[in-house]
Amino acid sequence: MRSTAPARSRKRRARIFAAMDELGYRPNEIARSLASKRTRILALLFPPGERGLGITEFEFVTGATEAAHARGYHLVLWSAALNSPKELNHLIRQGLVDGLIVMEIHLNDRRIQFLRDNAFPFSMIGRCADSTGIAFTDIDFEATMRTAVHHLAELGHRHIAFINHAQADLTRATVPLSVRTSPLNR
Hints:
By secondary structure, the protein is α/β, with parallel strands linked by helices. The protein is built from seven helices and five strands; from the N terminus they run H-H-E-H-E-H-E-H-E-E-H-H. The chain has a single domain (29-185), classed as Response regulator (Rossmann fold, 3-Layer(aba) Sandwich), CATH 3.40.50.2300. Strands 2-1-3-4-5 form a five-stranded parallel β-sheet, with helices on one face.
């Protein structure tokens, strides 16, 4: 005697999904994240500042958003000032995000050491004094400057000025180093 349970189960499942469609029901992502313990959300930490979000920073945000979506994640821009380990601890302990992308890195960035110590998943846009073992990406400033100077020289310019970051940025040691994508990202 053959069991009809699988056929009944399929029919019941089809009726349930038809009712869901008819009622416009959509699964609650928050409830799903509670069950799976994963939010599928990444936060990009961008500290607010007087400069705001410039074209270069916007390109990084756009690229991070596209990469997150390609891997089934959402990306939120977390612009609160998270400069202390206490504030950062509060964010990661709430369980709102599965990982962080840290931007505007300082050479001796306490956030990076805190994330390392707590084994919380993160990567960096920029790099700190010791980026060993951390996935990071940044602009290759050496190649960028070489290309810019070469272009200006080809146009016939012989006197070229370089305008750098504000003195406050230089003092805080947030000025990017000449970097390339880390081997962890290749």
